[in-house]
Amino acid sequence: MMAGGLARFLVLILAAAICGAASVFQPISDSHRSAALDVFVPVDGSYKSLEEAYEAFKTLEILGIDKKSDLSSATCENVVKVLASPSSSTLKDVFYVLSVNGILKCKSGEDVPKDIVSKLQTGVKDAKLLLDFYYSVKGLVLVKEQFSGTDISLGDAEAVFRSIKALSQSDGKWRYSPNNPESSTFAAGLAFETLAGVISLAPSEIDHSLIQTLKTGITKLFDSIQKYDDGTFYFDESEGPISTTASVIRGLTSFAASESTGLNLPGDKIVGLAKFFLGVGIPGDAKDFFNQIDALACLEDNRFSVPLILSLPSTVISLTKKEPLKVKVSTVLGSKAPALNVKLAQALSSGSKGSSVINNQELKFDAESATYFLESFPKNFDVGKYTFVFEILLDESANEKVYITEAQTKVPISATGAITIENAEIAVLDSDVGSVESQKKLDLTKDEAVSLSANHLQKLRLSLQLTTPLGHVFKPHQAFLKLKHESQVEHIFLVKTSGKKSELVLDFLGLVEKLYYLSGKYEIQLTIGDASMENSLLSNIGHIELDLPERPEKAARPPLQPTDPYSRYVPKAEISHIFRVPEKLPAKQLSLVFLGLIVLPFIGFLIGLTRLGVNIKSFPSSVGAATSALLFHGGIGAVLLLYVLFWVKARIDKDSFIVVSRFILDLFLYLVLEKKDMFFFLVLSRRAMSYSAAGQGKNSSGKRRISDLLTQSDNRVCADCSAPDPNWASANIGVFICLKCCGVHRSLGTHISKVVLSVTLDEWSDDEVDSMIEIGGNASANSVYEAFIPDGVSKPGPDASHDQRMQFIRSKYEHQEFLKPSLRITSVKGSNSSSSQQPHLEGMVEFIGLLKVTLKKGTNLAVRDTRTSDSYVVLTLGQQTAKSTVMKSNLNPVWNEELMLSVPHDYGSVKLQVFDYDAFSGDDIMGEADIDIQPLITSAMAFGDPEMFGDMQIGKWLKSRDNALIEDSIINIADGKVKQEVHIKLQNVESGELELELEWLLGSVHDSKGTIFVGSVSFVRWTQNTVSPSSSIEQVEICLNIHHYGGSYMDHVSPWRGFLFQFCSSDLYSLW
Q1: Tens digit of pLDDT for each residue in 871-898?
Q2: Same fold, 308-416 and 420-559
Q3: Which SMART domains does this one have (predicted)?
């Protein structure tokens, strides 16, 4: 109930803003027709329900859009099925089946579906609720209209009329049931439609007193109508103003269609209701869109009065171009109006008090364009803002019974023209006597190069005159003078208009603090703009050299200027490689001599073999053994040959060298390893790695490959909400998503969903395309991320709210709650020597980065010993503590000491405590404070790598009553590092202040006083592998689990960027 009330309140606020901001109402146009094709989009060629189908087809029919042939086949199948066997359908389903059949003509003729008529007549007889009466009576009316030769009538129509009338209330509202005392305006509209159907089905006239009583109730209902200041009327309750007002209009027009009712409604309220629906604009919700168009169609075709709407193609008139005033009068759906006269009664200026510039000026009519126009304006019509008051008079008295207009229509008009700028000058004045030291005339139609100089005892004066085309003084909406220091610090001053002159005087003596005591060159820029000024200007006047006093020590410093965030994408400076100067080589002849000396021992070795008569009879003689021996020695020779080829710089490419090397190495392993299974394992592993690496180099067309992947059935709906035709993708996760889920992915941060791209608009890199292809799209990714969705958790649909999408997507990708159990990491302690050989997991600690705290100094700390204290600081974050050194006998200690803390994934505030060290008793506390590190981490994560930016401010931790800050804590990027200065006052103690500096280190892995990872380390499994019948090898596998944030080696070896990676190492085989 609270959510519904809040939504209704927001709709009212939006409608009030629309109606209050503008009084120009435009009839239904082509923009509505274009929007209807986007709002009423079927899913897989059909609509979810017959109610949605009826609303879509009815709206398209009213707007004159012929799309029924594309969608009618699937819908007609359901219609014919229900008409043939209505026993299993509800009254509501039967009503909407007949409604759709009336538009699509799925079944027509003289054959009346008897089962349908019987079901509806039984529904009227047994009805107790208003909705049952509505669906039954309206269904019978539709049967009578659609099937020719049918004479369906209610036997006791007056009794049915009285049964429905019994649900009415004295205030004109109606109840849904006799047992529910709550009344509703929306129900009143349904009741009026139902009673109109009873009158049309009655075999004889209804008692006139009953109709008269009902007309009295309608009059009372209009007493509860609500109104805006511009004459817009509407009804409102829990269903919302659009649905409630549309229900009342449908009911009134249906009731007025009966000739016996003689309903006559006030014309101003009918026009006000039409203005309400036109003022809504184009609703984004399908239900509101249908209610808007259907209600306007009812007002367009009714028996009591058709409202006429006055609209202007443009509310801006250029006096320079001498544009005429153009006015159009039409019905709410844009149909032509009957013959009439349009008169401009008044033209009230916003600057005058009730005086009119134009009075009772009749507009001429152009039949070809159906436009009323005023060719020229009077000579006293000047630039400015006006309120035009129009009156519409029907020519023929017979039309007054059918058409109705407002007595007067007020429209805001803006008249624009060229403003004359005269006597523009800038001068430097002496502060004491006001004499002019230097003065320059200005031509603001072009940029000037005025050069001025002043000190802090002088003033700067800028003056000019602005006049309208008729010579009146013009006061612009915006007139600013900007001074921009050479350090990019800017100051803006307002130029005020007084009398006939616009003037600004800057007293530098009073502005030295605002200017931060910055001496030097200031660029001067003048901005003058107004909605009525066609020649608004932004002019660079020149510059002024200011000589200001030196900045005092305690004076405010100028703020850090933000850098352009797009500067990180500009081309980097070209790198010039300077290679090492080649060493001097000896002469070629000397090298050949040494080569001979090296080869000489080998030649002597060969001669010695021949002299000694070496026995080579043991060389294998069988074919198999001899072949193995030759291959063995040939392999050694091939390795030596490779070295020779490398030495002589033979032109062989890298890939060929690697292939030959691997072949020789594999052959060598085969010959020397006793474990042949190890050889095959090595070969297959290297082939798999080679195949994976080869997959990274695909160079086919990225657009075509993504399009081919998108055509797969699983990729034609959003991976997160199943919305049709997703046009966005998360490249590192590998899923196609819709526009609504795309916004949630971007909010997760680049460490989760790193690259969110448009399938059609963005340029895809080869790595991003390869990542999507290797993952395989939605089916492959969801088989991991949605492997186990627990009971009670449902996947959001296409119409889910933003909060539902956010909760599910965060649980799916950020918290990874739906992964397979084999991918989840838990903490289970067990013995390594367990005979069960089941996997055991040790305790896991997961970190996202490091926090370096530089403890600078303390001031006026509390006394805990006789006159002093031996102070030290303890920092606590989760289960970690860091302790500083003890400063003996010092109430104003200066530490300048660095303390390190690892920040876990679920971090909180850093607890800071100051103690007094006691050698023989417990240490006394000297105060404490909580340091919120979320602003620091959030700012650092948002900007990414700080080394890519210059010095700049990126965030702030604001001082408040809930924290211990003495002043706002600024977060800066300085020298490529993210740092935060913190000045706090210790809490729960009589005195004491501390100054700290925080520095965020993302992704640090080091081995100092224990290994710290951005992730977790765990023992995963202890197994025993049987190598042979007589031996086995025990294996311990240790895994480092790292959350991938991009920019590392893993970008090149795995497509699962943004996922939880696991690097494992074990003692399996000594070769590894």
Answers
A1: 999 999 988 899 999 999 999 999 999 9
A2: yes
A3: ArfGap, C2
